């Protein structure tokens, strides 16, 4: 079939499509011209990279065999003839899990704060800063609690085990989770125990949210009040799950150790108290977005198309 891609694909993805006998045409056709181009050139499938394509345009493309969106916010293939929508969000799971540990290590060793002060005072007050930042903590032997379990949470759990951490989770919809972890070619099975909310809050040293976007807080003042003051909280995968006002209050009162945030309740304009808090490691909603996840997503998309047609 003839496939139109509005942007160049990764070479490996393009090769998969061409090896399956498809003709790949790469032209960035303007949205207002795309319907005519597809009709004039007898295009069968469309690959786009956008967070939004006008509904009026999509309505005119119903005869296409498939439409694939390689935008990492969408990550889906609509197989029109099979009346099937295939989500590709699993390709982002490793990227999300690695950012969890980036923030976790930042907070545990005070790197986010040291990076603010070293450029300003490193030359004049090096020894004082050396003393100040010797109070970091290690991950090995600590308990990481996962709030919600998805593919990214499973990746986080595997990395936590590699760090020598204990892993528990709180998710009312699930029973115990069994993970298979491969180390040096050997597969081992690890049981991740489910906990009640009260058990979870009493046992954790660190928390990572994996609820996906939600409309109601999973953790607010009542939950934060039950945590040890040495707990660090990471939220890169649970927009809306954590009460940010309560988080700042407990950090300011030294009732929590640190936080790492990549998702915010008021995106794209996070609240100033969040942005200015020295105990919070920050990133601008980049958890899913890496060169590798983009490449992996395009390859997975190409495999599905090649296997389906």
> Which strand-content bin applies to the residues?
15-25%
Mean pLDDT figure: 92
Shape: elongated
Distance from N terminus to C terminus (CA atoms, Å) equals 8 Å
**How many extended strands?**
14
CATH class category name of the largest domain: Alpha Beta
Element pattern in H and E? EHEHEHEEEHHHEHEEEHEHEHEHEH
Can you tell me the CATH topology of the largest domain? Rossmann fold
Low-confidence stretches: none
- Total count of helical runs of at least 4 residues: 12
| Overall helicity | 25-40%
Structural class assignment: alpha/beta
Superfamily (CATH H level) name of the largest domain: NAD(P)-binding Rossmann-like Domain
- Strand numbers in spatial order across the main sheet: 2-1-3-4-5-6
Number of domains: 2
The largest sheet is: 6 strands, mixed
Which CATH-level-2 architecture of the largest domain? 3-Layer(aba) Sandwich
Taking all Cα atoms into account, the compactness measure Rg is 23 Å
Keywords: NAD, Oxidoreductase
Domain D-isomer specific 2-hydroxyacid dehydrogenase NAD-binding: 101-287
Family: Belongs to the D-isomer specific 2-hydroxyacid dehydrogenase family.
Protein name: D-isomer specific 2-hydroxyacid dehydrogenase NAD-binding domain-containing protein
């Amino acid at each position: 079939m003839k496939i139109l891609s509005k942007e160049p694909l990764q070479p490996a993805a393009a090769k998969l499509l061409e090896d399956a006998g498809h003709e790949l045409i790469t032209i960035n056709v303007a949205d207002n011209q795309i319907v005519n181009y597809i009709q004039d050139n007898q295009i069968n499938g469309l690959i786009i990279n956008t967070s939004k394509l006008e509904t009026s345009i999509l309505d005119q493309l119903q005869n296409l065999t498939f439409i694939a969106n390689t935008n990492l916010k969408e990550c889906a293939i609509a197989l029109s003839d099979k009346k099937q929508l295939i989500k590709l969000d699993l390709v982002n799971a490793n990227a999300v899990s690695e950012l969890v540990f980036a923030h976790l290590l930042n907070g545990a060793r005070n790197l986010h704060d040291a990076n603010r002060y070293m450029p300003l005072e490193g030359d004049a007050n090096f020894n004082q800063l050396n003393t100040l930042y010797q109070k970091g903590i290690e991950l090995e032997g600590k308990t990481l609690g996962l709030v919600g379990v998805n593919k990214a949470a499973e990746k986080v759990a595997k990395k936590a085990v590699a760090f020598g951490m204990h892993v528990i989770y709180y998710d009312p919809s699930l029973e115990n989770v069994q993970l298979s972890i491969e180390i040096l070619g050997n597969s081992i099975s690890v049981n991740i125990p489910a906990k009640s909310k009260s058990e979870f809050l009493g046992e954790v040293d660190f928390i990572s949210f994996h609820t996906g976007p939600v409309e109601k807080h999973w953790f607010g003042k009542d939950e934060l009040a039950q945590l040890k003051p040495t707990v660090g909280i990471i939220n890169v995968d649970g927009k809306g799950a954590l009460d940010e006002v309560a988080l700042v209050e407990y950090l300011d009162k030294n009732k929590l150790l640190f936080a790492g945030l990549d998702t915010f309740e008021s995106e794209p304009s996070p609240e100033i108290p969040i942005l200015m808090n020295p105990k919070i490691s920050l990133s601008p909603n980049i958890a899913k977005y890496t060169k590798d996840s983009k490449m992996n997503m395009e390859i997975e998309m190409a495999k599905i198309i090649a296997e389906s047609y």
